[in-house]
Every structure is written in structure tokens, then in C-alpha cells.
Amino acid sequence: MKALILMTMLMTSSFALEFRSGDTFTYQQLRGSVRVQCQDQNRRTQFHTVQCYQNILSPTEMDYVVSEQLDADEIKVTSTWESGKVVKKDVKYDTKKNRSKKRLNLWIRTLFQRPLLAPGTNEVTFVAYKDGLEVQSRTQSVEVRNGGGKYCPYYSMYIGSCTQLSFVCSEYFQRFNYCQ
Predict the structure, then answer these.
(1) How far does Cα 39 stand from its chain's mean position?
(2) d(CA 127, CA 90)
């Protein structure tokens, strides 16, 4: 009986489908101001002050789905946010590396990308398939906590063309190591 209980505990913990980074994430809003010197189309010098904002997720914004000794070729992930919104993503699984072949987008929101997670508690269901047949599934609560805001110092930079202003904030936050 003890052996059966131990075997069940090992199977549900060490072989569980989950994000490599775990089940707790923290988001922070970064802020800062940049004074930009650039040249317009007529090669005249212009100055702009750009207010930068970015939300980041720690420990990572992109993550693998992992599981030890799982014989599967695909993982389907469904996340239900506190608001009730449901987001689904599918990813191929690499049995040799014990992880998904690609990292899933957990946080980045663009015109063409939807994040899997939202602030608060997310109910995430992982379903593994082999040749179209379900071989394992698991539902897990993934918490995304508010880590507050951070301010980067004021900065001045020169860029060649004023048409490149859209890249200023990403370069600014990288230069200041995301306000660390």
C-alpha cells in the first residue's frame, strides 16, 4: 500500500505537465522619460521627449511546457482568466528534451499575439496528445501578482532619423536593464 501511494505521489509531482518557470509570476509596469535628438526629412535637428511605458513579467514572458518521461507529440494549453476569458495555444512536444519544442507567449500583447496569462489567478489546463489520443492532462492555478511600478532614470539619446522614434522605448528599457 505504501509503495502504491509513493508511486502515485511521484507520478503526479515529477511527471506533471507545467510551465518550466513554475506557477507564480510577477508583473511590473516600467516607466521613464527619454529626450531624443534626431533629424527630420529635411535634415533639421529636432528634439522630442518620449514617455515610455512597458509591462514585464518575471521570471519570464515566454516559457516551455515541461514534463518528465512524457510520450507525447503535442500539448494543448487552455488558460481561463479571472474575467472568464479563455485563451488556447497548441505546441509540439519534444520527448528527447522533455519540453515543448517552442516557448509559449505568456505575457506579450501585440496586434498579432495574445498572452496566455492575465493578472490574477489563471486556471491553466495542459492536455498532452500522442498521435491524436490524449495521454495525460493536468489543471493548475497559475498566479500573476502585481509587483508595482519601477521608474528608470531620465535619459537623453541621439538617433539618426526621427522616423525611428517607435524604437526608443525598447532600447531605453534594455539600456537600463528594465529599471533594475
Answers:
(1) 35
(2) 10
Contact between 150 and 30 (Cβ < 8 Å): yes
CATH number at residue 154: 2.60.40.10
The parent domain of residue 149 ranges over 2-179
- Is beta strand 133-151 parallel, antiparallel or unpaired with respect to 120-130? antiparallel
- How confident is the model over 106-154, as pLDDT tens digits? 999 989 999 999 999 999 999 999 999 999 999 999 999 999 999 999 9
Could you tell me if 160 and 38 are in contact, meaning their C-beta atoms sit under 8 angstroms apart?
yes
Peptide bond into 153 cis (omega under 30): no
What is the tally of structural domains in the chain? 1
Beta carbons of 35 and 167 less than 8 angstroms apart: no
Pairing of strands 104-105, 62-63: antiparallel
Contact in structure between 179 and 150 (CB atoms under 8 Å)? yes
| Segment holding 2, helix H or strand E | helix 2-13
Q: What is the pTM of this model?
A: 0.81
